[in-house]
UniProtKB/TrEMBL annotation:
Family membership: Belongs to the MsrP family.
Gene3D superfamilies: Oxidoreductase, molybdopterin-binding domain
Quaternary assembly: Heterodimer of a catalytic subunit (MsrP) and a heme-binding subunit (MsrQ).
Name of this protein: Protein-methionine-sulfoxide reductase catalytic subunit MsrP
Species for this entry: Pararobbsia silviterrae
EC number, as in UniProt: 1.8.5.-
Cofactor(s) the record lists: Mo-molybdopterin
Cofactor note: Binds 1 Mo-molybdopterin (Mo-MPT) cofactor per subunit.
Amino acid sequence: MLIKSSRRLDGSDIAASEVTPRRVFERRRHVLRAAGAGAAGLVFGPRAFAANDAAEGAKLAATPNPAFQVADKPTAFKDITSYNNFYEFGTDKGDPVQNAHTLQTRPWTVSVEGEVHQPKIYSIDDLLKLAPLEERTYRMRCVEGWSMVIPWVGYSLAEIIKRAQPTANAKYVEFVTLADPRQMPGLASKILDWPYREGLRIDEAMHPLTLLTVGLYGQVLPKQDGAPVRIVVPWKYGFKSAKSIVKIRFVEKAPATSWNTYASDEYGFYSNVNPNVDHPRWSQATERRIGEDGFFSPKRPTLMFNGYGDQVASLYQGMDLKKFY
Ligand SMILES: Nc1nc2c(c(=O)[nH]1)N[C@H]1C(S)=C(S)[C@@H](COP(=O)(O)O)O[C@H]1N2
Ligand SMILES: [Mo]
């Protein structure tokens, strides 16, 4: 997606991907079968999972939170789980669904560390129990110009931050993804400086919209979507939403992030969805909603802060968003 030298970034790929190639179609059929099997299952507690994995498709009980819904129709499960960016499993959209099965999601720990009074290493079971699981449907928008509407399962990241008691020096939060070459074939190519890293200002991380995410469509996160736990920040471009995280670190200075390190003139630290600030090589004014991508479907206008301006614009009061892109 974001590779400079690749044809994927110059816009031609967007047109090409409007035609579904046969192998993508076949993968989708496979995913559909998996989804059907999950839907027939029971509601499992954490102890029902297999030793090294959260059972693929296991249900997660979550209460819809009416404060976090959108009117747009949710994107189909098969699209959410077969059209992915997860470079640890390859750079093509269809790679993660095919390759992510090697990811071992149990045992799994997340270390909360750095500038906090209460550092803690959480097991994934601890995280699942930390706060009530909510279903929240968010608009998601990739910097490449496509978008989806995803019913996530999780709770506000603020729940963890409150418990950690950040020190007065904690100005930013860094998120670090697992980087294990035995589980992640994409690490063999040095496109990004692994591990994948992202970051937020602490007030962004504390914002109730920022979701510690453990599922989608009422089931545990599929591996290609960042199992067993990821961050979701719906008013920012998708790459800010780090998958399969193992570390949440509180720091004083803005942390280096993978995409900013890769090309700082193209991917800034903030990366708020903003139709008025173009990427240096393409416009960000419109987007293609996955599932609506026929040749004649009109593109949608991209909304400021991805439509979450009422809730987040105040975080950026007085900032020049062309400078802090
Ligand atoms: N660890 C990791 N997290 C990642 C990525 C990645 O390559 N590695 N890609 C990002 C990008 S560019 C997007 S658009 C979203 C896609 O999430 P989805 O596949 O669940 O829709 O994940 C983000 N998180
Ligand atoms: Mo993205």
